[in-house]
């Protein structure tokens, strides 16, 4: 009779099927039964190596939990629904869901978590780049997936986060293109002919984000104290189903077959034909009778620093008072059709301005002012930071005005100007190589000047 093996000692044997088998005791399951893991290999050295690797994970307390591991698609759904939703802002959570549905699940969703390899991620990233996605988009997908795998590793669902073994694409920092002072004036002159002119004066002149400007509300504007209190921002969130069967609710909007090449239905769509729905599609919440948490919503800014008060330039105050009086006239004209939101910038019926329409108006104003195309961020925050720097404002004060948490972030918003560089280098040259004094008119020679000239001649000799 063979001696009884000690507790937690592993077993290795050659099976009748020709494979070497190893069984490792990992501990106890939740139901009290022994947790015995199985490994197999063709040769004895291979099975010994696998058994030692499993024993090392057990001894370090890093062994994955027993049971069949979920697929990447299933774990991402669990992560976003139960874990990330407790921490992320609504807009960020929408972005996570979008990239999960459109990129992660089609790319690696069918793999089991414990079978996911670095090569799978690298092939997915390569395919995304070949499909025309920007490296910044691929990097964002990598970070979302890495965060989800990190939580799975922390909870011992997997033994290792394979995303840490992959180098995502390198992203070059976006080159900013703020307005010059002349361009900013031309832009505001074009905006002055529109009812929304005050929105652009505040956005360009004070460097607020689009959501902050559109989310301004009168109770948080102190005209007497000349202060803005940006406590809210306006964002468009994705609708969520409020019904019990999302798949059946959106049945009339499901499209499981791709559009034909000459599709006329989506001819006017900027992004082309939408992708076909998956078989278990639960989207189309916008048509749900009980939809919730979507549309234009007032939300809190992301950081505490973003809610810091900002002084209003005194020349803006009369224009803001006039804007308020004009809004009162609109309210009286709309009558019962007015929808009160307390917003500073509204449509004729009192609703806040639509961010999409606001972006389109920005592009129109660029064309009217004769300015080349650029991002909305370039025409607001980057412009304000750069012009403040040109006016001689120190970087710390600019950081307070733009409400950044780190000064390194502010430095990325401030772009140097070539004419300032030329002026600085001219002054540097004047310091080391002063220009000769200009010739002056001939003056009557005196005894002192004759003596000085004689001394210079003697020195020369």
How are the elements arranged and paired?
Blueprint (H helix, E strand, L loop, with lengths): L10 E4 L5 E9 L5 E8 L2 H17 L11 H12 L6 H19 L9 H13 L4 H20 L26 H11 L5 H10 L3 H5 L6 E2 L4 E2 L4 E5 L8 H4 L45 E5 L10 E2 L4 H19 L20 H15 L8 H13 L4 H8 L4 H7 L4 H15 L14 H14 L1
Antiparallel strand pairs: 1-2, 2-3, 4-5, 5-8, 6-7
Helix pairs in contact: 2-3, 2-5, 3-4, 3-5, 6-11, 7-12, 12-13, 13-14
Instruction: Give, in spatial order, the strands making up the sheet with the most strands.
Output: 1-2-3
Give the low-pLDDT segments.
none
Instruction: Please report the number of helical segments.
Output: 16
How would a textbook summarize the main sheet?
Answer: 3 strands, antiparallel
Task: State the separation between the terminal residues, measured CA to CA.
Answer: 120 Å
Mean pLDDT: 87
Cα radius of gyration in angstroms = 34 Å
- Give the tally of β-strands: 8
């Amino acid at each position: 009779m063979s001696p009884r093996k000690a507790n937690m000692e592993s077993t290795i044997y050659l099976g009748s099927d020709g494979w070497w088998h190893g069984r490792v005791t990992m501990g106890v399951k939740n139901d009290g039964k022994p947790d015995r893991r199985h490994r197999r290999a063709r040769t004895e050295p291979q099975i010994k190596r696998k058994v030692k690797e499993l024993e090392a994970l057990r001894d370090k307390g890093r062994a994955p939990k027993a049971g069949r591991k979920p697929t990447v698609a299933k774990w991402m759904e669990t992560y976003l629904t139960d874990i990330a939703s407790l921490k992320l802002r609504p807009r960020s959570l929408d972005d996570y869901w979008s990239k999960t549905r459109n990129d992660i699940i089609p790319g690696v969703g069918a793999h089991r978590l414990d079978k996911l390899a670095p090569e799978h991620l690298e092939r997915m990233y390569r395919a995304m780049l070949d499909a025309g996605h920007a490296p910044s988009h691929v990097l964002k997908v990598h970070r979302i997936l890495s965060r989800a795998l990190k939580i799975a590793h922390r909870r011992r669902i997997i033994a290792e986060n394979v995303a840490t073994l992959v180098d995502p694409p390198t992203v070059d920092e976006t080159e900013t293109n703020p307005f010059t002072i002349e361009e900013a004036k031309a832009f505001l002159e074009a905006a002055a002919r529109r009812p929304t002119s005050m929105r652009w004066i505040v956005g360009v002149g004070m460097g607020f984000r689009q959501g902050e400007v559109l989310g301004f509300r009168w109770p948080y504007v102190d005209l007497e104290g000349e202060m803005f209190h940006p406590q809210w921002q306006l964002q468009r969130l994705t609708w969520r189903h409020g019904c019990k069967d999302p798949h059946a609710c959106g049945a009339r909007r499901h499209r499981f077959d791709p559009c034909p090449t000459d599709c006329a239905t989506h001819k006017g769509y900027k992004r082309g034909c939408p992708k076909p729905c998956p078989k278990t599609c639960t989207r189309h919440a916008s048509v749900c009778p009980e939809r919730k948490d979507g549309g234009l919503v007032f939300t809190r800014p992301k950081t505490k620093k973003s809610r810091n008060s900002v002084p209003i330039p005194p020349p803006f105050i009369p224009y803001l008072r006039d804007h308020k009086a004009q809004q009162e006239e609109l309210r009286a004209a709309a009558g019962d059709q007015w929808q009160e939101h307390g917003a500073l910038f509204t449509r004729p019926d009192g609703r806040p301005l639509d961010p999409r329409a606001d972006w389109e108006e920005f592009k129109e104003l660029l064309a009217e002012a004769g300015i080349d195309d650029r991002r909305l961020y370039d025409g607001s925050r980057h412009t304000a930071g750069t012009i403040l720097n040109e006016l001689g404002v120190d970087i710390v004060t600019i950081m307070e005005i733009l409400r950044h948490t780190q000064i390194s972030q502010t430095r990325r918003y401030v772009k140097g100007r070539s004419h300032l560089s030329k002026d600085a280098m001219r002054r540097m040259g004047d310091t080391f190589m002063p220009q000769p004094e200009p010739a002056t008119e001939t003056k009557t020679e005196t005894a002192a000047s004759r003596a000085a000239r004689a001394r210079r001649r003697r020195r020369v000799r």
